[in-house]
TrEMBL record:
Upper lineage: Bacteria, Bacillati, Bacillota, Bacilli, Bacillales
PROSITE patterns named in the record: ADH_ZINC (PS00059)
KW Cytoplasm (keyword) present: no
Source domain of life: Bacteria
Protein name: Zinc-binding dehydrogenase
Organism, scientific name: Cohnella hongkongensis
Amino acid sequence: MKALQITGENEFEIVEVPQERPQDDQVTVRIEIVSTCPRWDMSMMDGKDMFDASKRPDYPLPPGFPGHEMAGTVVAVGSKIASLKVGDRVAALEHLIGSGAYAEYLNYREHELIKLPDNVGWKQAVSFELLKCVLIGLLQFGDLSGKSMLVSGLGPAGILAMQAARLMGASRVVAVDITQERIDFVNGLGIGVAKHSDELGDERFELGYDCVGAAASVQNVLERVDSHLVVFGVLKGEVRYGGHLWFKGITLESYKYRSFEAADQALLLDLVANKGLNTECLQTHHVPFYRYQETIELLKRQVAIKVYAYPPTDFEAASEVK
């Protein structure tokens, strides 16, 4: 089968690799669509570790890595598989180790997948792994009913968070960013209220959800919340928690990853399939794998929110060179 492989800094190839048979506790998925995880893709191509920019990745990366947001069709099942069958439509909920999803096929364990209802399309489902992570963070607040929330950052996570918080009961949700083009794009979608950070005035919120991670962003949110802030983005820099925050009893909490249980999965599907959470809006640009450098440039310039590809067809012109 074909896969994209990052072989060095700003270097990649389309390679032929063996298609592995599923183990007893695995299924093989034909990947119908795959989407970027911008920070992963840019870091891997820039010669930087995802979590520590002072380190370099160990090149060449495994074939298909760092692709992990995908949706596809089950084409083979191991002998111990109980909940999935050939022909089922699924989306990835996790897969970060070993070979990745920038490939035609990949093997998964059952808990790494979510079965899709018929009314959820491929472009809606491809970034369910990100939506899962966003929901885990939002659930750290407990019941959102009737509460106000400030979401910082209008990247993919922030765009999902502002919608999910409102659909989960928040009474008022405002999302902020410093890029006017992204603010205008989000407001044009009609999915909620987006503002420039400088336009908040004296607005205050009970809850804050930071999807940026930069210390300045976290600090800005922290100074505007009265109860609880969860930092979803990978924190970079130092945040000041002064006495005025301590006296208010404000909770400052990091994102806590955990397993995504059956009730969580039901919530995710309900938000998308029944309540109208717009996940497809993240998929703004389609670029075949053999033009992967173009994908990276679109992400770096923030022209694209996410870039997607179709493995069944998007390897075909690989002979045209990168």
